[in-house]
Structures are given as C-alpha cells and as structure tokens.
C-alpha cells in the first residue's frame, strides 16, 4: 500500500461513526418510519455530537427530492430532529413525523450562476 493510500484510508475511517447496539436500533427504527424515503448516506465530523443522514424521495415526475435528518448523540442515547428537504409534497408529513419544522433547502442558482450546477427544465 502506498503512503497516499494509507492517508486516504485513515481519513475515511475517522469519519465513520461508532454506535452502541441500542443506538443502532433507534436509528434503524426512525429511518424505517420514513417508508417513502430511500436512505443513502450520512456524514459525521470527528468529535461532533451529531451526524446527518441523507435520503431520496421519488416524485411523480420521475425526479427525486432529498431529505436529511440530524441525529444527536448523548451519553447513551440518540435523538433526531428534522433536517432539511427539497420536497413540497411530503413537507407537512415529515414535519408531523419529526414534530419539528423543517429547514427548506434552496437552489444554488438563487445566489450564484455557475456552469456546474443542476439546471431545472422548464
């Protein structure tokens, strides 16, 4: 293994979250409740007290909206809160399920115009 491969491997491992079995069970139970979401990825910064899970919601027009949930870790438990989403169809349902208002995401084109952004078809 080359030196750069070792550094990459160490960097990736640092961002993996380690959960207790009961914490894993809680996360699983929460994510399963959102049966209209296909959960995809999560991010976790080393030493952070939370991690964020991302998923996709199919739309009728064959496109997808995303959702994120934030899980906060305390000594022996995890709680979650609404993160953000890009859907209007499920917005109220997600707020009802989380018991919290969601942060609506916005399009990059609202603040800058760049070539490497997703452009919506009209």
SSE diagram, text form:
Elements: H1 3-14, H2 21-33, E1 38-43, E2 50-58, E3 64-73, E4 78-85, H3 91-98, E5 103-104
Parallel strand pairs: 4-5
Antiparallel strand pairs: 1-2, 2-3, 3-4
Describe the structure.
The protein is an alpha+beta fold and 122 residues long. The chain has one domain (3-110). The protein is built from 3 helices and 5 strands; from the N terminus they run H-H-E-E-E-E-H-E. The chain has helices at 3-14, 21-33, 91-98; strands at residues 38-43, 50-58, 64-73, 78-85, 103-104. It has a 5-stranded mixed β-sheet with strand order 1-2-3-4-5. Helix 3 (91-98) links the parallel strand 4 (78-85) and strand 5. The longest helix is centred in the first third of the chain and has 13 residues, at 21-33.
> What does the main sheet amount to?
5 strands, mixed
Gyration radius over CA:
17 Å
Number of strands: 5
Question: Approximately how much beta-strand content do the residues carry?
Answer: 25-35%
Mean pLDDT: 79
Label the overall shape.
Answer: globular
* Strands side by side in the biggest sheet: 1-2-3-4-5
Quickly count the helices: 3
**CA-to-CA gap between the ends?**
49 Å
Helix content: 25-40%
Tally of structural domains? 1
Class derived from helix and strand content:
alpha+beta
- Parts with pLDDT < 50 across at least 5 consecutive residues: none
Topology as H/E string? HHEEEEHE
TL;DR?
By secondary structure, the chain is an alpha+beta fold. Helices cover 27% and strands 29% of the residues.
């Amino acid at each position: 293994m080359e030196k750069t491969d070792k550094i990459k491997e160490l960097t990736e491992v640092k961002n993996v979250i380690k959960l207790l079995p009961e914490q894993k069970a809680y996360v699983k139970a929460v994510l399963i409740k959102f049966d209209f979401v296909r959960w995809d990825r999560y991010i976790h910064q080393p030493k952070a007290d939370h991690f964020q899970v991302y998923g996709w919601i199919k739309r009728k027009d064959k496109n997808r909206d995303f959702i994120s949930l934030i899980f906060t870790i305390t000594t022996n438990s995890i709680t979650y809160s609404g993160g953000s989403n890009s859907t209007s169809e499920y917005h109220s349902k997600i707020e009802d399920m989380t018991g919290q208002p969601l942060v609506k995401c916005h399009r990059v084109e609202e603040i800058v115009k760049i070539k490497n952004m997703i452009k919506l078809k009209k």
